[in-house]
Structures are given as C-alpha cells and as structure tokens.
Amino acid sequence: MEKKSVEEMAEDIKVIREMACCGTMLQDITKQLGVSEEYVSAIMLCLQGYQEDDDLAVARLVEMSL
C-alpha cells in the first residue's frame, strides 16, 4: 500500500468508523476500501483508544503506529 497523507487517512477513518458502527467486519472493510488488514486494524485500535470525533488527530496516531 502506498503511503497516504494524513488528510487521506482522515477520510478513511471517517468511512471505517461509520462501517464499524454498522457492524461491518474487518475483512469486509478491507475488501470494500482496497486497503490492508493492518491499516484497518491500526485505525480501529486508535478509534477505540481515542473517542473524539477529530479524524485528523486519529490519523496522526495511525501514522505513528504504522
């Protein structure tokens, strides 16, 4: 996977948050977005630890964790 900008990650985070809240499974999210399981897992872990709605802040956390 090519490196994404923080802004692109923030957009992915918004979509992943919505999909996860609807009960979409990790594997289904990766298929629909065309990204790796590692990427989606990192986002989901950061979302659990950071409950705010600031997608850019979460994107920065994800960027540091990858």
Description of the structure:
The chain is mainly alpha-helical. 73% of the residues lie in helices and 0% in strands. The protein is built from four helices and no strands.
In short:
The protein is an all-alpha fold. It has 4 helices and no strands.
Summarize the topology:
Layout: H1 6-21, H2 26-33, H3 37-49, H4 55-65
Helix pairs in contact: 1-3, 1-4, 3-4
Helical percent range?
over 70%
SSE string, helix = H, strand = E? Answer: HHHH
Q: Low-confidence parts, pLDDT < 50 over ≥5 residues?
A: none
Rg result: 11 Å
Shape: globular
Q: What would you call the structural class? A: mainly alpha
Mean pLDDT: 90
Strand content: under 5%
Report the sheet with the most strands, covering strand number, pairing sense and barrel closure.
Answer: none
Distance between the termini: 12 Å
User: What's the total count of β strands?
Assistant: 0
User: Count of helical segments?
Assistant: 4
Descriptive key words:
mainly alpha; 66 residues; 73% helix; single chain; globular
